[in-house]
Amino acid sequence: MAQTFYPITPTEIVAGTQNEWVTMNASALIAEGATGVVLHCVNINSSARALGLRKNGSTDDRTVDLHGYGHCWAAIGVDASRYFEAYVGTSYEDFDIYVVGYTMSRVTFSTNADDMSLGVTGSWQPIDCSTEAPSAIGLIFEIIAPSWLESGLRKNGSSDDRHPDVKNHRCFGAIIGCDDAQICEGYIEGTTTDFFLLGYITDGCTLNTNADDVSLGSTAEWLDLSALPSGVNMGFIEVISNASLDFGLRKNDTAEDIYRYVSRHAWGIVECDASQIIEGKIANTGVDFFVVGYSEVIVPPAYIPRHSGTAGVIII
């Protein structure tokens, strides 16, 4: 089984310019041949700020607000030089963007995302990605809504029924399984909610038909989530809340303490430790965690950059 997702110690990468698309050089952090980066984006300002992410060379231009004090994970493509592009509005100093991992050849990203938006509201509808994502077992979406509207994604054949409100870039790296015909299902409350297919996974991961509920019962402290299966290195965790509530997800026994808003709906792409443990922290039991899938591990090549100690910063 080929490994597809490689975690690294979170390392900040700074745009350095605001209100324009900036080329971000991740070549010092991710391996040659990488197809994408996994990012953890944090708005450290109390007000909403525009954020956009795209593969270098893309003409996509989606730059919508991320909630004040909000955070989200993302998976976005890189070019052959391992560059991607970011847009931060108002002030680049309002955002902390961390590279937390990368993907290799079994994850493919389009230069321009495919618009897979639905026209039917109020029920689960099939999203056929067979043309855009041949041989896929998993799909990577960006979800955008201009106002508070319900939306959801699930693997075709699932009985899961989670579709809370989402506004703007609440789901930047939504990873969900598809069936053998590359069909997943989507739910929207209004047709102004859009689904953009950023990329797809063909191997090296398991995507659950029905997600595993690993929600916590205690608040305001870092606690172990239920262990992922043996041989796993990263979990794909759907986060649901009934209000704008603080939450955090991190590798077990690390000092990272990013604990900020989820505005109803997000996805985490999070490294686990050697015992397959991820830690979570919630402000209120109205925040729930669901494992929609995970990445299997192989021994990484010796040349892959690994970091220890205090996370570094690269200024672009």
Structure description:
The chain is 0% helix and 52% strand. The protein is mainly β. The protein has three domains: 5-104, Jelly Rolls (Sandwich), CATH 2.60.120; 108-205, Jelly Rolls, CATH 2.60.120; 211-296. The strands form five sheets. Strands 17, 18, 19, 20, 21 and 22 form a six-stranded antiparallel β-sheet that branches. Strands 6-3-8-1-23 form a five-stranded mixed β-sheet, with no helix packed on it. It is globular. The model is unreliable at 307-311 (pLDDT under 50).
Brief descriptors of the model:
single chain; mainly beta; Jelly Rolls; 3 domains; 0% helix; globular
Order of helices and strands: EEEEEEEEEEEEEEEEEEEEEEE
**Structure class:** mainly beta
Under CATH at level 1, the class of the largest domain stands as Mainly Beta
CATH topology of the largest domain: Jelly Rolls
The rounded Rg comes to 18 Å
Shape: globular
- C-alpha end-to-end distance: 36 Å
CATH architectural name of the largest domain: Sandwich
Number of helices: 0
Note the main sheet. Answer: 6 strands, antiparallel
Mean pLDDT: 91
> What is the strand tally?
23
